[in-house]
């Protein structure tokens, strides 16, 4: 990851959405440009969950280091993923950050992981590694897992509902949790989180 190069002459990365490249660009807008798609921060070439993660990272990385994310734009330009991405990506993101975020965020991620677990089981070999990551992550935060277990209601887990609500919430909380924790190497951690997301999303 991170070895991709970006052609010269692309717009400067900055926070938020941009109406035209002349006003700058977010990382996902650069991806749409590289893919030859219409200018958008929701490019069709990138899985929606990965694009959400990229937008969050783009907006929370410091101005001094945001330009370094440009090398990941080409990786985003060809990552449409598949149905399993809705489970694989948030689990990978949570697994990589759950010990580095505040306890309230750990509880949210634990709740998401507990909902992901039966989906991984149902998927069989396709999500076997994700199931292992889910269980290993829950073991790292026994307090949060127990707290969620006392509160949650046992109900059938639907992939569509997980994709619409749980997965985006997990992605958002991984980023916001890192930011809230105020790690001195936050820029590095955010970039590493995006690389984890890219790796979890097949071409």
Task: Detail the topology: elements first, then pairings.
Elements lengths: L26 H8 L13 H13 L12 H4 L8 H13 L5 H21 L4 H13 L1 H10 L7 H23 L4 H14 L4
Helix pairs in contact: 2-8, 2-9, 4-5, 4-6, 4-8, 4-9, 5-6, 5-7, 5-8
Number of distinct beta strands: 0
Give Rg in angstroms: 17 Å
Order of helices and strands: HHHHHHHHH
Q: What is the rounded distance between the termini?
A: 14 Å
Choose one word for the global shape: globular
Structural class: mainly alpha
State mean pLDDT (0 to 100 scale): 90
Total domain count: 2
Helix content: 55-70%
Helical segment count: 9
Please summarize the sheet with the most strands: none
Strand content: under 5%
Low-confidence stretches: 1-6
Notes on the structure:
There is one protein chain. By secondary structure, the protein is mainly α. It folds into 2 domains: about 20-75, no CATH class; about 85-200, no CATH class. The chain is built from 9 helices and no strands. It has helices spanning about 25-35, 50-60, 75, 85-95, 105-125, 130-140, 140-150, 160-180, 185-200. The longest helix is centred in the last third of the chain and has 23 residues, at about 160-180. The two termini are about 15 Å apart.
Kindly summarize this structure in a few lines:
59% of the residues lie in helices and 0% in strands.
Throw out a few tags for this protein.
203 residues, 59% helix, mainly alpha
């Amino acid at each position: 990851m991170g070895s991709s190069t970006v052609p010269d002459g692309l717009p400067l990365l900055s926070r938020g959405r941009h109406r035209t490249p002349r006003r700058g660009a977010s990382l996902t807008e650069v991806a749409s440009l590289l893919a030859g798609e219409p200018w958008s921060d929701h490019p069709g070439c990138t899985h929606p969950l990965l694009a959400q993660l990229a937008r969050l990272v783009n907006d929370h990385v410091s101005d001094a280091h945001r330009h370094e994310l440009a090398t990941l734009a080409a990786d985003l330009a060809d990552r449409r993923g598949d149905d399993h991405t809705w489970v694989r990506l948030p689990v990978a993101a949570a697994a990589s950050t759950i010990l580095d975020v505040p306890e309230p965020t750990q509880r949210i991620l634990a709740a998401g992981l507990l909902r992901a677990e039966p989906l991984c089981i149902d998927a069989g070999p396709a999500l076997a590694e994700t199931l292992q990551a889910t269980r290993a992550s829950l073991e790292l935060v026994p307090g949060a897992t127990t707290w969620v277990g006392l509160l949650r209601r046992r109900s059938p887990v639907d992939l569509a509902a997980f994709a619409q609500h749980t997965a985006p919430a997990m992605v958002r909380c991984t980023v916001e949790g890192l930011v809230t924790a105020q790690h001195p190497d936050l820029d590095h951690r955010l970039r590493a989180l995006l690389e984890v997301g890219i790796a979890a999303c097949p071409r």
